[in-house]
Amino acid sequence: MSVGIDNSLCPEEYIGITPVFDISADSEFLEDTIVQIQSWCVGLDEDKIDILHFSSKTDWNIIKPDRITEDNSIEFRCREFSPVLAVIRWALFGTQELLMEHRLYILNKNQFHLAFFTCGETVQNNVRHYYKDLGAQLAPFPLPQILLQTGDRVRMKLQIDRGPENLHFNFPDGHAFLVDKKFLRKQRNEYTIHLFPVLEEYPQRNIRYEMVKDGNEPENCNRDFDFPVERIDMPGQRIANFLGDVHVAGNMLVNEQENNLQQPLQDAQIEQREAEQQRDADENGDREPELIFQIAIFLFVAVFLSAYFARRHT
Fold it and tell me: How far is CA 284 from CA 99, 273, 293, in A?
């Protein structure tokens, strides 16, 4: 089993509202299994949602959801499936609200990546590892989640104290985008701003991050931080929460070797036990010569004393 992002699966007439949940085609369910997939949309209308069960990119079946839970998870039942994805037709999407995250990442001291992505553990892990692999550093301030809907316009920009070095960004007015079909079909949207001139070492400066949302419910967010940013290693993905945004309940018969969700955790535990056993063995091995020597001394003394007392009695 796996949970991931694959925009190529979603047909053009739909907007994906959950990650893709994939079960191996060899998996077999003994009876209907209850599946819950967390959505980044809020205030969902059950009648508008389709669950697409893909056998290929051009061939899929439609499953209707059973209910929407309080935490915006979409629940449905299924017995046999491979990749599944919850969607809403673009014609019915309307002003559906979705919860988004926005982050600022800094790469090579002078590249600033403004990232907007859908809210959910699967996408968050994907974004985190994407920027970690690039070697980018997360800006040192928290940013709130933001509700967006079709037609909203968002503007983001960075400002820096110029100083004698005449520091400036190549987009002084920042970036702006419209929440439309193109934006909604991507789980991560990225906008890049460069700092000039390029220097080996940058002087200490203050940078301000500004985000403004125009729409039915305007919103703005301002953050100031000291630049350059101290390097801190970004955390990796937690191994314990393997399914992320998906919960599965019911009786399943699956190929244990291929689909055991706890295997990575079990492997780590086995490796830890083996390491502890090896360490104990090494410690015992180090003590073994000393122990043999002590036993030999004890036996020598015992034999000597026995012989000594035997002579005194004769």
Answer: 57, 16, 14
